Amino acid sequence: MPPDEGPSLRALMSSESASPYSRKNPFPATHPVNRRLSGEGSGKDTRHHEISLAGSGLSYEVGDSLGLFAANNPTLVSEVIAAIGATGEETVPGSDAVPKPLRAALTTDYVITQPSKEFLKALVERAGDAAGQLCDLASDPAQKKALEDYLWGLEFIDFLRGHPSVKWTAEEFVKTLRKLQPRLYSIASSLKANPEFVHLTVATVRYESHGRQREGVASTFLAERWPAGETAGVFIHTAKHFRLPEDPAAPVIMVGPGTGVAPFRAYLQERQVTGAPGRNWLFFGEQKRASDFLYESELTQLQSEGVLTRLDVAFSRDQAAKIYVQDRMRENARELWAWLEEGAHFYVCGDGARMAKDVDAELHRIAQTEGGKTPEEAAAYVEAMKKEKRYKKDVY
Ligand SMILES: Cc1cc2nc3c(=O)[nH]c(=O)nc-3n(C[C@H](O)[C@H](O)[C@H](O)COP(=O)(O)OP(=O)(O)OC[C@H]3O[C@@H](n4cnc5c(N)ncnc54)[C@H](O)[C@@H]3O)c2cc1C
Ligand SMILES: NC(=O)c1ccc[n+]([C@@H]2O[C@H](COP(=O)([O-])OP(=O)(O)OC[C@H]3O[C@@H](n4cnc5c(N)ncnc54)[C@H](OP(=O)(O)O)[C@@H]3O)[C@@H](O)[C@H]2O)c1
Fold it and tell me: Ligand 1: does its nearest atom lie under 6 Å from the Cβ of 183?
């Protein structure tokens, strides 16, 4: 190992052991900054959050994520308690088996939104034919997909209110529940640029289904239920597969539409603060330039300072036909290919269901059109990039 790499490795190893905090023992962090990034007229509520790690001894590398233990919305907790005819004072086992009041358990320990299999099974047993379509679908393994479609957008509260004649004691109900899991968020800051802080870029999940307003637990906890002075449990989730290149001179290409931009904001801060000489190219996409260009002023500033060598944006809803990040890749295929041939590392973050697949297909296409490869050779080229750890994804 070259002598100048020694201290950072030692620092990393000592920082890992310096903090007593982990997923099993989360740090009670504060949340001093909660700022809306989405502008007026946006269809989204995407926010910039800053969380203080002061006093924790925790450290992270760019590419890592933050784990957050969020609490359920107290209004929904009260609705569920009322729907089972309880008061909230009843003693029930918490998810760690330690007895606690029902209200506390439903707030912090259990999933009370998407219904569990155990709950649906118990409901069908108790309600019998009155469970209607649920009864038919749940009893036929061949109907798995139809059951999933039926359940999409339905929550505990719908079933509890829909079957008031089915009675549950607090303990019986709690026994059907799943443990509430922490949520992960890509870290949007470099610790070197923001000592003791973690920044996040979070899309608040809100939607309507079956005539009710619904919300995601952790994203709305961050947006609405974590005041600056209060604490919530956090931990660092290391992502060794999603690090910047070891060679600071290696070029990087980053594809991060929507909240997928988060880790790349961290990369750019890190490359700036460490004076890394490698070139940086970001593809960002969102719905509308006027309201959804997340971190626009920071990114254009980084571009004018030369840290961001190239910034290509795709606003999908500013014209009749959709324009996505992969369209911008195709328009710039020759240069993108040249960067890859010069050893650029290629990163993708954000939606894993559609975007990452389409970006991957475009990468294959560019290897064919610009690299003159057959589809099989293009696949081998992309595979080799993965093996060399030059193609890295963090998608969700
Ligand atoms: C490694 C990693 C990094 C991540 N980084 C980020 C990040 O930087 N920023 C970010 O915003 N997110 C990020 N996420 C996603 C994040 O972890 C959460 O999944 C997200 O915030 C939703 O969590 P929630 O608790 O708010 O919603 P939940 O309570 O988990 O609710 C989401 C659920 O609601 C239901 N649902 C959602 N929309 C609808 C709809 N329209 N109709 C019916 N049902 C619906 C679905 O069942 C869905 O699974 C990341 C995930 C991973 C794994
Ligand atoms: N698990 C969950 O509950 C949950 C909830 C919310 C979001 N998510 C995931 O988290 C991701 C991040 O959400 P976000 O709000 O930050 O942004 P996003 O939904 O990823 O949208 C960002 C941009 O990507 C565009 N886009 C849509 N499909 C695409 C494709 N196939 N290829 C390339 N670009 C595409 C969008 O365009 P259009 O919108 O105009 O098509 C928009 O301009 C989402 O994609 C979603 O999958 C998950």
Answer: yes
